[in-house]
Amino acid sequence: MEIKILQKVLQANDALAEQTRQYFKSKGILVINLMGSPGAGKTTFISRTIEALKGEINFAVIEGDITSTIDAERLSRLGIPVVQINTEPFDGACHLEATWIKDAALSFDLQNLDVIIIENVGNLVCPAEFDTGAHKNVVILSTPEGEDKPLKYPLMFRVSHAVVINKIDLREILDYNLEVINQNLTTVNDALERFILTSKTGEGFSHWIDWVRNQLKIIRD
Asked: What's the pTM value of the predicted model, to 2 decimals?
């Protein structure tokens, strides 16, 4: 019985997510769902992306956390619209759902937006199970997490379109093996677009920035 209820919940979420995805497309707005572990560097990555495209692309962010507004406050200092979703009232859910994303997005001035970035709740499990209505799912890994995460949490990498390997400046210190992580990513999902960079310094960011521009163009074609 519990499995049947869960299936109904997921089916309803997926249906709303698809409607939301098409609605954003009709408005010419690209929606990116960013997922990753706590400490992977999601907020810094978002900040660096917005700063790199300031004056060219208008961003908004939907910030997901179980509680607190720390990251939302940090991003709002960039002068962009930010909506915080705290899941504590929803039994501390470890993911964001399509209905919450839809409600949050409708609070933005959509006529003056190009890209909405969703910073999902920090973990590599629950967010993979719920479609948010985004056009692209991106998972961010940091070198301190090691090379084994795609094998331990395969669903996250199967539902993602791209993976960001962050904090590559720590590669030599941590003896991080790019060949191994690439092999593990290929084993789980060989179609993943891959970006190797450091959010803190901007090293390697040009490939990612070009990808964002291209995805926005695709949405609007």
From this structure: 0.94
